[in-house]
Fold these 4 entries.
Entry 1:
Amino acid sequence: CLYQAMDSESKVQQQQAAYKGVTCPLSLAEPTEDDLKETRSLEEMMKRMNVFESQEGMEQRSTALISLQALACDWISEVAAQKCPSQALDGIGGKIFAFGSYRLGVNTRGADVDAVLVSTRFIERHEFFDKFFDRLREHPRCGAAHAVSDAFVPVIKMTFMGVDIDLLFAKLDMATIPDNIDLRENTETLLRNLDERCVRSINGCRVTDEILHQVPNPENFRVALKVIRIWAKNRGIYSNAMGFLGGVSWAILLARIAQLYPNAAPNVLIIRFFHVLTRWSWPKPVELCELSPPNLHFPEWDPRTNIKDQFHLMPIITPVYPRQNSTYNVSISTKQVRCLLLLVSLVQIIGSLKNNGRSLENKSTTKVTPNPPQVILAELERGRNLTNEIMFKQKSWEDLLEPVNFFDAYRHYVIVIASSDTAELHLDFQGLVESQLRKLVLSFEHNGAIDRAHVNTESYGRANESEPEHVTKWFIGIEFKKAPEPGKKLNVDLTFDITNFIRQINGMANSLQLRLDVLYSKKRGLSHYLPPSEHWKINRSKPACVY
């Protein structure tokens, strides 16, 4: 019996060693009949919701990408013919790789496709954003083409053959691009002589492919990820730009759960997702694998050498070189908090040196640990409580995915209104304002009268025909602090925060054709700013404290 037990334990250890991840699995339990039944129930629920792309829609996207690749390869051959001898033109071309939700197989109906054009060394970035962009605008089946060449990750946005596509560009130091090239392999060779913009562009595809490579059962992972994406969007915490978590971050989190429970059915992965993450010791990073850095020198996330990385709130690390924190915007939105924390740390270190004669080598004992965003943690806790009840058949999966009513959550709101004279101008201006909203929220958080500032991830257009045609509105829920003494009113002044934000945006936009207004409203006044279709959400006398 002793030998049998030892043999059984040895088999388990061998099986655990075969799985991927930075630690061994927590459980190798196989799905039960009830798990398989619950999974079928989940899939039927998502079919009824009709939010994910149909097979016909997926085929339309595939056809559009194939046609776009053919157009790009023809253009690359033409440009290369002007630079290279004729004998060197054989095999010169490029290849388009899709990534993001489309590559993961979890894209919703009408969602855009993220893709990158990988080219040979003969094509320059400025040629892609000038000459190829002109070629796209002349194409009869391409519309709304818009180049953002100066973005952190430069992109051409377009509608091609009825499909919205965000196309990035990366050139490799290669004479030809093989049809069977694997962007995950040979990292040092692949990234050698690339600039940082090319690395950022190509890594979107490499991250997506590595996530799929790291999960034990991709199909179970996809089913569970669809549920998590619906949940995050419905609960208003799916937005990288707004300082929440984007699609890559949610995918990495779920992939880590799939590594810990490699044989689990999708319903179990979802339940464990909430149980593990509500108990996670943030800011301990979530990582899918250990990397051996190549002999390259691109900047990457490393709290041992980068002080600012030590103050990231919810580090979720991409699984390819150079490693990055996919929740960087969550940390950026608390930039001033990190500065204050760093100053506090330095003061504590100096105090320790004066009082106890401690050396700087021991400064880690005075490190201040930042806390993750309250809204995300509250939603994870809600998810854990509901999945507990779902396990005991007391609640349904629909209860977990119930959309939050943002306009019933607070008594006070700030409305940011961006308007423009033309649709083309508004596309850029809307993106600019949205990318800077985190700064306004941060400013509110440091206002002595405000306890919480929470931006809604959804934006809205015209409330009525009297408003400008090209207008976008964002809503920030405000929770004020209680008065320090009973019977006394709290002194609230948002003037500095608002005027400073408007001044910053106007300085960036620098155009009389663009207008920005920031207004205050109580809950009962929101009907003046929301479209009539949204008025039903303002339906209670007291806010439902969902956060």
Entry 2:
Amino acid sequence: MDNQADSYRFTSQEVLCPAERKAGKTPCCSTLKMFIVALSFAYFSKALSGTYMKSSITQIERRFDLSSSLVGLIDGSFEMGNLLFLALVSHFGAKMHRPRLIAVGCLLMAVGSALTGLPHFFMGRHHPLRPMNLYRCVSLSFPECVKDPGSNMWIYVFLGNALRGIGETPVTPLGISYIDDFAKAENSAFYIACLQTITLLGPMFGFLLGSMCAKLYVDIGFVNVDTVTITPKDARWVGAWWLGFFVSSAIMLLSGIPFWFLPRSLPKQGKENKELPDTQQQHPGITSVHSFLPSLKKLLSTPTYFLLLCGSVLKFNSFIGLLTFKAKYMEQQFGQSASRANFLIGVLNLPVVAVGIFLGGLLMKRYKLSVVAGAQLSFLTSFTAYLLLLLQYGTKCDNIQVAGLTVSYNGTPGISHDKQWLFSECNRNCSCRAEEWDPVCSENGITYVSPCLAGCTGSTGHGKHTMFHNCSCVLLTPPPAEGSASVTLGQCPRGADCSRSFTSYMAVSVLSSFINSLGSTPGYMIIIRCIKPQLKSLALGIQTLVMRTLGGIPAPVYFGAFIDSSCLKWGMKKCGGRGACRLYDSDMYRLIFLGLITCLSGSAYFFIIALIVLLRQQFAKEDKRTAEQAPKPGQIELKVPCDFKKEFPVQTLTGTKESLEPRAMQVTKEAGHEEAVTANELQACPVEQCPDVDRPAEQTLNPANGQTEVQKNTVCDSQHTDAKSDVM
């Protein structure tokens, strides 16, 4: 045995403890892979529901005549409901039946999605247009309005989205901690990468579902679609926003079923034939609330966690703002319909993000990247994507020419927010209302706010094929042969230059999304590897809580408020009051939208750089300490735990085996053991097989007598109370 001192750890563990333990029975369906499959479907379902909400923002805004800031508040209600219970579920949920808590969450999300789409059935039919005779340049008196009975129904959308947020609370922190508790350390990153990759199928299908529903008219099945005179590209078009919420509700309901049948705990991967630890077999259902605050204090006092938290909040703000208003940006900047914008995001951006996340996890597993290397990879990919984002400032389209808003009636460019500019000598005698938005397009490429403001006095055709004639405000060069200028329904299309700019924008967007996603899994593993195991679930929950509170709730609101400041033409509700915006200043929209994203992301890099420096210093110290504590060749260590008498601290004795025998006998006798462990009793076992018996004892509260008891943290505590020594 002396010749094997360098590669074996000498221990009395095999003398004091039996080598074999009775294997516990593995419950039915208690495999880790089955849990990962079920959790992947739950992640897919909740991601589909959440991204469908994002894709329906424009439709909800138009249907309820809301501003971007208010619809951003509705979108943020998900985070409001989520943060109400997130911290408590993350802390106490780890001690309870985690799969069943996830099942309850899926049920709540299903109910919340159904409640979100329910207001459609209590509202009247959507009537975005007035009778055709009110469009023309004639003197008319406007009828009195009748208040829309569904004007305040958006509150139910708010509540349904909040309930969905409450249901999502246990899924992420408890699911990730469940996997990490029972998976091998080298497989944990790969499993989480697979989980996130499958999860991204949810947003992809969510945006595709949003694209399909945006094509369908809101009152489909109740009105004749052929009589609708507007198209999906019109700012007044409202798609069947409610339909997707019922589809996502049914999927969420199905995703929660498997968790009702999964066990409370699983065997540690690679140790399926060993009995589960007592801490996993006897999870208390209720734990003391006094343990929460010390755990939270210990967590927030960890510098690496705090820096990661600050950087994550800033990045999450930019991500939420981008995800919420990206489709709307594509509509207003490049003239795309909501349906096409959602479709392109679903089939171009999200698939490459899924591939990037999967490759990032594969890199972690293939090259076994350390925490520092993972943080550096995450920073490098994120910063490269950030530089590509700056190129989007140059991909733009000019404002569409709208008489009285972006150009004068004689064609002179100029932005105006004054509604008096909508009136000119050519339409002074018409009974026109500046609040109306019924755009028509002339042959000269200029859009007019309405046929009335274009000075039109006659019309022909029906429905979508209606044309207006004798438009006195339309200036054509040369003048028409018949002496009469005509306009057609809808805004004028954008030019070919705008189509090329949009192609460049999508190419840069897809490439930056892929590069940024490569560092997603390595960055996520920082919190897994740098936090103590007993704080892991709480750390994930607090991170999600803070990101929801400081990012998920305020980001859509202030993004929407800044976007509202670039509005040139507001819609009008039936009985007065400002409705949804109909036309934006596209140049101002671009600067505000991209400016907010770049400022928030750029600020986050200061914290990320500080985190990397701190991690490098921390792991350099640990490597140095490990090298110093390693026994020299030909020597072994004797560690005597303090389990026997509290007055004896852990003692480490270094030397050869022959010289340690008398010292081992003396120390173990002083520790209260009647018969000292001699060198002949020390057995040899490979280093990786030797259990750690040198963990400090824990104090627990016995609920039966209210007394504090010492609980030993060694694998032999359940069978022996005598002395233990570990010779290394």
Entry 3:
Amino acid sequence: METQRPDQELTWSWGHRPRSALDRAKAMAPPPPPPLAASTPLLHGEFGSFPARSSRFALTLTPQALHIQRLRPKPEARPRGGLVPLAEVSGCCTLRSRSPSDAAAAYFCIYTYPQGRRGGRRRAARTFRVDGAATYAENRAEAQRWATALMCLLRGLPLPGDGEITPELLPKPPRLLLLVNPLGGRGLAWQWCKTHVLPMISEAGLSFNLIQTERQNHARELVQGLRLSEWDGIVTVSGDGLLFEVLNGFLDRPDWEEAVKTPVGILPCGSGNALAGAVNQHGGFEPALGVDLLLNCSLLLCRGGSRPLDLMSVTLASGSRCLSFLSVAWGFVSDVDIQSERFRALGSARFTLGTVLGLATLHTYRGRLSYLPATVEPTSPTPARGLPRAKSELTLAPAPAPAPPVAHSPLHRSVSDLPLPLPLPRPALTSPGSPEPLPILSLNGGGPELAGDWGGAGDAPLSPDPPLPSPPSSPKAALLSPITEGVPETLASSGLPPPTPGSPGAVSTRGPHDHLLPPLGTPLPPGWVTLEGDFVLMLAISPSHLGADLVAAPHARFDDGLVHLCWVRGGISRATLLRLFLAMERGSHFSLGCPQLGYAAARAFRLEPLTPRGVLTVDGEQVEYGPLQAQMHPGLGTLLTGPPGCPRREP
């Protein structure tokens, strides 16, 4: 588990909805409670089970796990499944029986995703019967006490020392906008979303709307027209490319400075899934791929919690600017990324095949890399006014007038808090006068497939309790404004053209001021380091992972304020380069002692390719080839990560 610095800002849980995106990032939840010992008992009780009513269990809840001990019919010396780490719990709800003979009993169910012996996670539900009192009201209050305590622990909310544990302790469920690229990875994103993501976040009591993207830059267009105050977070269900669109859609808004603070999350259904790999590591899970990585990240999302996200402002040769949350690549890495696009049907295996092909035709590129080391204080720019971001900005031709809006039928498809199994996506709202309310999934609102989870032969199925009244501090969900077709109003009012499809680096005059960077083509200030020569690759990366299973910068953090520069000089053999990438799976490539491998931590950098042809990528998206420069802006964004270092199994 990484050590938390005093100056680092970490939000632990979903909280009440503030008025602005900036406030939402800072006050998404109350501060974390003082740490308790992992084995400190918080609740203890004896309950029955369902559907096997003859069994009795003793339950003990600690800050990190639920301990389950069978009492009847025969106590187990070594109970199976007797320890349920909270890191494997997605949610909890209360239920009641439909049988008249069982009218006095109440039930609570815990949704878990334990790891099997082979490492994969499988969903399991444990249901317990509360029957210690004579009346249903008393038993229900006890079931709600346990369910509330569990949910508070999951979301990092403090439990009252001597006070009563009631559902009013929980804030209103957060509202998430899920953006799904159905073609992500091997085209399984929508199926994985229906099968794994939506059931889990419903069990966690999160409220959501879902939109399927239909074309490139669709997500970028959508976020430009959203009322961001209505959402507690935007979560992409795809690879890294969809999040790149969302962040740069924020940059296109007039209120970009507040919009970019909107919490964003990622649920990996793409090919690379680099950011998800870093989130998985931050959460304390073992490295994972495919569905296992998706389940791990979904569990972390259900727990709530965010931290600041460093973003790079990248300026290209034409003056275009874009935000990067992941990497800038040149040489071998970008070649493999782009040339393997034709193997997208293979999923993550496309990179393995692309690496083999790249090694067979290994190229070197001549260039110049300059960077401002992280330990050097920058020289303040002498002009009092802001410097232009690129020399070519002075001679840019006027932007063409916006084209008439093109009708898409429909603009998007959305699913909103629907019971599972989900029907086919329905058309989007088109009438501004007909907003749709967003239901709240309350604590005891019941999860999907109730009868399938707990119903047995001859047993009357359980049903969700009636919804609890909203606490005074948690008003009912307001009506959401629909997302309409056409060019977003914010762009029309600003007079700027919409971004060109297929061009990630669309021209933008907005964004953070790069005070460390002089204009491209002008001399660099003192304190910069310049390397010139033949390179096999150059990588500027912000988080730790280059892929779900590639740890390029092992010590990087989401908010360390650094851009981690890695490069490989010419003259390296194919075998040595292959060993570097194999060692990168464990993050041990720097310990190989390869003389061609270099590293530097920087705050800003400039890359000037001297080879006339090549490939440059930003966050895996190909951009124009030529000189570029970038500056790291610490904590500019907000990333939904879940709590750091999920607790391991208790001894």
Entry 4:
Amino acid sequence: MARLGLGVMEENEEENVHSLARKLSDVSCDSQGPLVSSYNDRIRPLLDAVDELRRLKVMQEGIQLPTIVVVGDQSSGKSSVLESLAGISLPRGQGICTRVPLIMRLQNLPHHLLQPELHLEFHGKTIPTDEAHVSEAINLATDEIAGDGKGISQTPLTLVVKKNGVPDLTMVDLPGITRVPVHGQPQDIYEQISNIIMEYIKPEESIILNVLSATVDFPTCESIRMSQQVDKTGQRTLAVVTKADKAPEGLFEKVTSDDVNIGLGYVCVRNRIGEESYNEARMEEARLFEAHPLLARIDKSMVGIPVLAQRLVHVQAMIISKCLPDIVKKINDKLNANLSELNRMPRHISSVAEAMTAYVQVIGLSKESLKKILMRGEFDEYPDDEEMHCTARLAELLDNYSKQLRKSTVVDGTEGNFLMEEIKVLEETKGIWLPNFVPRSAFLAVLQKKVNKISDTPVELIAKVWNYIEKVVTEVLMHHCENYPQLHSSTRRAAQSLVAKMKDKSTERMLEMVEMEKLTDYTCDRDYMTLWSKLMENNNAFTEIMNDYSEPTTLGIEGFGEIEVGHVRAFSKDIRDQAFDMKMRITAYWEIVLKRLVDSMALHLLLSVRNLVGKDMEVEMVVEVMSPDHGGGIERMLEESPSVAKKRERLQKSVKLLKDSQNVIAVIMDKIVINAD
């Protein structure tokens, strides 16, 4: 059979897992054997696989395993139940006996003549023991893990019991819940125990075996309260009621009314007393539930350690059948993701030549990204970050610039203002020449005043555009050299230095454009004559208003709206006509000036961005990194940063663990197929 690959499993392998899971869910329990389930050769290996995955600590990768978790309040009889299931003695005493999570792996040995095999696993070592000394061995191991005081630890201890007559089960026994610390226990003992319990019972893959004492009211049990927090419907909670012989009164009503939502049902048991052997204890238990007038009312499917063993085996089969395919898929998915992330990391650099090659690659990738977002308008690398959709953002800045230019030079058509600026300039520029000529100096004086009014706007746009481009360039560069933190500061400096130079050039260029517009009045754009001619069509209406005092004193001109012109009658005809003509010429020519300022800005920015991405950025970055003033950035690439080294080590460990996990499942699948053949 082919091993599980590094990618998603092949269809036939996936079907094998689902098929085995279906068979496992159909397993029945043998009611004849006292504690032994009828697991066949296909099923026992799957439980071994889950146990091996737990030993490998695959849960550290966020992959939860199907687990029967044993919880109960202190002195609820939890240890007695586990002793009866395993047929061995566990530590007893005052206070908390279980101070670490105890993973109990029970495995039935089919032949009664075989000697039991017991051993402990913790801290990467295996300690053999036997039935006579297992309790002492657990205590010694617990002291080594949690200290020899009365504190607790989250580090688990595994007890493996291979013995004829025990059920094939794996359970995790957790410390008993206590609210009041005794001498030697930490003051926050309750919080520590609660945290451990919640960590184990919260996953949906966990089955909660809640051990309750018949001597208490179930709703008051702290273990019930905790299990209800994570399993409100009780669908993954099974309750075992101990000490039935101590408090038989009302027990039938407790387990049949189910006031605390135990979805998987109740099993009532009798604890072993004194020096009773386990066989004697089972016989006494059967006699108790058969003959006691109150306990005999409880259905036989709800009483006895054998029934509990069978129920647990069945529940375990169900949870493994439900989770196994998903576990295999999660292992594969997690492994693929970690391998991809590991492959994306830079290989460890060992020479200056390799460092230079890597740095050139960073520059190349950065240039390609910037070409896409700054020049071609492609933003597939940043689909959800609108700030990185650069062509759209730059177009918005340019549109706002155009609107701001027009807004700052809106024609003032309020009462008493129309033509007054032109008349004043004409009065101040008149000379000894023919009176019907408009002095060019007058036109330039008005033009220069308008240009001065908007002269700061282009410079403000330049600052906004290059601040934005600096942010974008820095973001892209930092992204592509994120695995080389040694280069971050020099790369950021290079971006800032380059953009500052480009910004200065652009500012100088725009100031030059403004000065050129103030210098002279020139255009070859035919739109100037077209618009001037159209505006001059209003001259006759203006003249009529000036000459006929019976006419209204308002005039409608496109681009000006309805304007008041009555105040202009106070001036001579020659000055009025010259002022009107100059006003229309200025208006027509100003449209050309505004378009020129916007178009020149757009073309300049496009050229500047192309130069930045095409050549200037690469030169600036190489100079900055190679500069001896900054510690030799290329040489620093030879020193892998602690964060990158730590990440690489973490991913390598994770990949090894997940590959081992894949191999565990593959080996188990091979065994099952061989047994089937």
